[in-house]
Design goal:
The structure is a single chain. The protein is α/β, with parallel strands linked by helices. It has a single domain, classed as Aldolase class I (TIM Barrel, Alpha-Beta Barrel). The chain has eight helices and eight strands. The chain has an eight-stranded parallel beta sheet with strand order 1-8-7-6-5-4-3-2. β3, α3 and β4 form a beta-alpha-beta unit. It is globular, with a radius of gyration of 16 Å. It binds D-xylitol-5-phosphate and zinc ion. D-xylitol-5-phosphate binds next to β2, β8 and α7.
Length: 230
């Protein structure tokens, strides 16, 4: 496989940090050079966990935008069209909805764009890429879930790499410059594999905010892993 052209963006997933210190943890990530923050919104229905709503997103948006960083909001909720306005008003730059939660995905995509956000669509591990076919020309980002959504700290599903490769080929064939984001179990050990497969944004939760090392050391571990072979 040829060498990858660029370094992907590392997007720390704040939900994996200390819930009592989200803003401080986000600051640590930005101080270490993160340019993109990933916020997971879970409703206890679409996924078996509950996290944060627009108020917390708004607080994190101030922190992110204060550092000229991007705020990606990953909506793991049913009927996401009900909340597009609220999360756009809260300061989301990219709003990502799940294909599995949207029977009217094209309409929701237009709603997101009309609200002033970039449009992201996410696929669960068991959902085939074919479900994206009609929507790919309209999106700014595709998120490939590489764990079953709901929790940080799960193991990467190895088959996800081949899915990323197939999606990369499809985006290239369409001439799309949409971001290809991978979320779940991403760590320095599989970052290069994902970069080579065609990912442009790597979401990382426990590998940035967990363990004994500092956030800065963990981000540096990604940088080293991604530059070793380039
Ligand atoms: C899982 C979330 C992820 C999660 C990633 O449902 O969408 O963003 O926080 O955490 P890690 O990197 O620990 O798998
Ligand atoms: Zn996520």
């Amino acid at each position: 496989m040829p060498a990858p052209p660029t370094m992907p963006t590392i997007a720390p997933s704040i939900i994996a940090s200390d819930a009592g210190r989200f803003a401080a943890c986000a600051e640590e990530a930005f101080d270490a050079g993160a340019e993109w923050l990933h916020v997971d919104v879970m409703d206890g229905h679409f996924v078996p966990n509950i996290t944060v709503g627009p108020d917390v997103v708004e607080a994190l948006s101030s922190v992110a935008h204060g550092h000229e960083a991007k705020l990606g909001v990953h909506l793991m909720i049913e009927d996401p069209q009900r909340y597009v306005g609220a999360f756009a008003d809260a300061g989301a730059d990219v709003l990502t909805v799940h294909v599995e939660a949207c029977p009217h995905l094209h309409r929701v995509s237009e709603q997101i764009r009309d609200a002033g956000c970039e449009v992201g669509v996410a696929l669960n591990p068991a959902t085939p890429l074919g479900h994206l076919e009609g929507i790919l020309p309209f999106v700014d980002l595709v998120l490939v879930m590489s764990v079953n959504p709901g929790f940080s700290g799960q193991s990467y599903i190895a088959e996800s790499t081949a899915k990323v490769q197939r999606l990369r080929r499809r985006l290239n064939a369409l001439g799309s410059d949409a971001h290809l984001e991978v979320d779940g179990g991403v760590q320095p050990g599989n970052a290069m594999e994902l970069l080579r497969a065609g990912a442009t944004v790597l979401v990382a939760g426990s590998s940035i905010f967990g363990g004994d090392q500092s956030v800065a050391q963990n981000i540096e571990a990604f940088r080293s892993a991604l530059t070793l072979e380039v």
